Amino acid sequence: MLEVALHHGFTGFDLDLAFDAGAGITALFGRSGAGKTTVIDAVAGLLRPEAGRVVLDGRVLFDSANGIWVPPHRRRLGYVFQDARLFPHLTVEQNLMFGARFAPRRSSGAGFDDVVALLGLDGLLNRAPATLSGGEKQRVALGRALLSHPRMLLMDEPLASLDGPRKQEILPYLERLRDGDLCLPILYVSHAVDEVARLADRLVLLQDGRLRAQGALFDVMADPAAVPLLGVREAGAVLEADVIAHADDGLSTLAISAGQLELPGVQAPVGARVRLRVLAQDVILSRDRPEGLSSVNILPVRVEAVHPGDGPGAAIALTAGSDRLLARVTARAVLDLGLRPGMDCHAILKATTVAPGSIGR
Amino acid sequence: MALDAAAWDALLLSLRVASVAMLLSLPLALWVAWILARKEFRGKGLLSALVHLPLVLPPVVTGYLLLLAFGRNAPLGRLLESFGIGLAFHWTGAVLAAIIMGFPLMVRAMRLAIEAVDPRIEAAAATLGAPQVSVFARVTLPLIMPGILAGAVMGFAKAMGEFGATITFVANIPGQTQTLPSAIWTALQVPGGENRALVMAALAGVVALVAVLVSEALARRVAKRISGAR
Lengths: 361, 230
Description:
The structure holds two protein chains of two kinds.
Chain A: E1 2-10, E2 13-21, E3 25-29, H1 36-44, E4 51-56, E5 59-63, E6 68-69, E7 77-80, H2 92-101, H3 112-118, H4 134-147, E8 152-156, H5 164-179, E9 186-190, H6 193-199, E10 202-207, E11 210-216, H7 217-221, H8 227-230, E12 236-246, E13 251-256, E14 259-264, E15 273-279, E16 283-286, E17 297-308, E18 313-320, E19 323-330, H9 331-337, E20 344-349
Parallel strand pairs in A: 3-9, 3-10, 7-8, 8-9
Antiparallel strand pairs in A: 1-2, 1-4, 4-5, 5-6, 10-11, 12-13, 12-15, 13-14, 16-20, 17-18, 17-20, 18-19
Chain B: H1 5-38, H2 44-56, H3 59-70, H4 75-82, H5 91-116, H6 119-127, H7 132-161, H8 164-170, H9 180-189, H10 194-227
C-alpha cells in the first residue's frame, strides 16, 4: 500500500494532494499539466517536494515533518519512463542485467528467463537500444525495471510515445503483469481514458494539481461528477461481462448482470471475463421499452442521479442489475422525459459503440 | 641529420613530463569537470574562473606564481622539500607547470562531454538501485569516454608544448628541465643552431600528429560502441 501526501509549488502552479494506491494497477489520470509526472517523480525520489509524506508498505520514504528522505536508489521502486531511457552504450541483455545487478541479494522477484519470456525479449538480447522500435524499447525498459525486484512499479505514460499498433503490442504484456503471479502493485500515469479503462483497478483523478476523485475504477468511471474530468466524449462506465457465445455473423453474446449484449469483434474465448467500456454519449434513454430498433442491446435501468453539466448536457447515473452505467443526454431531454432518481427506464446501447479494442482481460 | 644526445634528452624529458602530467591530472580534472557540470553550489563561478585562469594569464606570470609558491624559499616549496619532493629547477616542477597549464583544457573537454549526457538516463539508473558512484562508473563514465580521451590528448599536447611557465618556474637545464620547446628555443639562440631547431620542431610535430591520430581513432571506436551501431 502506497500512501502519498504532497505539497509542491511551481511558478504559477502548485500541487497539493493526497491519495493512496493498493494492490493491482492504480491509474493516476489527468490532462497534460495536471501534475501527474511531478507526483510520480516525487514518489520515485527524483523530485523532492517542499512538504509531504510518502509511505510504501509502512516504510517511510519521505516525510518532510521528520526530515526523512530516502534517496531514489534505496526506494526499490521500478520506474518505467515514457521515453524508456535505456542505456545507449549497453546491449538489451546488459540493460536487463543492470536492473538485476542492484536487486538486493535475498529479494524475491522475477528471474531473468521469466522476464525474457513474459515480455518476448528473446530475439532482442544482443541488440543495441538504438536499433529497437519504440514498442521494443518499452518492453526492455519494463523488463529492466522488473529485474530490479521493485516493491512497486511506477509507469509514466509508457504508451504515450507509441502509435496505435505499438500500443496494442504492449497492452497485453501489461495485462499479463497485472493478472500474472508477480502480484506487483503498479502506479500508472496516463492521460488516455481507454488505457485506464482497460488496465486500472483503481483510479485517481487529478486536475490542476488537486485530487478530484479516487476510488475503484468501476465506481469512478460510473460517477457523473467525473464526466467533466474525463472529458464528455471519453466518459462512460466500465463493466465486466462474461463471453457466452460467438455467432457465425461476427456478433458475440456477453452476459452482464442486467441481461445479455450482442457485440461485434470480441476476441476473447467463450467463458472469458472481459471489460466493456460504454461511452456515456452512446447510451440512449427511453421511458418505454422501444420496439423496432436496429440496436438489439436494450437494458432495463433505473435512474440513480441526474447531474447537470455546465453546457446543455446532463450526466445520468444508472443502475442495470448490479452494474452501473452512465448516460449523457441533453438537459432538455431530462425535462421532456421527466428523468429523476428512482425512475425506471430503458437504455439503448448501440452495438458499435462498445469498442472491441478497448475490451480487456 | 642525426639527433644529438641533448635533443634526445629533451624529447624524452618532454614525453615523460607530458605523460606524467596527463595521468596525474586526469582524475582531478574529471572530478572538477563533473562538479562543474552537475552540481550547484556557492562559489561555483569562482572555481570555474580559477580553473580557467591559466588559459588567460600570461604563461610567464603563471610560472612566476609557481616560483613564488613552490620555490626553494617559499613555504610550500620548503614543506614539499621536507617530504623529499623538490619541484623548483627539477623535472617534477615541469610536470606541475604542465598540469596547471593543461588543466583548463582537460576540464573543458570533459565538462562538455558530461553535460551532453542526459541526466534522465542517470536518474533511470538510480531508480534501478544504483548508488551515485555506480551510476557514474557504469553509465556516465562509458558515455563520456570520448570526451575524456579528447581531454587527455589536449592535456598531453599542451604539456608537450608548454614553454613559458615551465622555463620561468624550472629554468632550462639540459638533461634536467630542458623540455623540447626549451631546447628549440635554446638552439635558436645559438648561431648556426637553426638546423637543430628545425629537426626538433619536426619531431614535436610528429609527436603531436601521432597523439591526435591515436585519440581520434580511440574516440571513433568508443563512439561507435556507445551509439550502438553494429
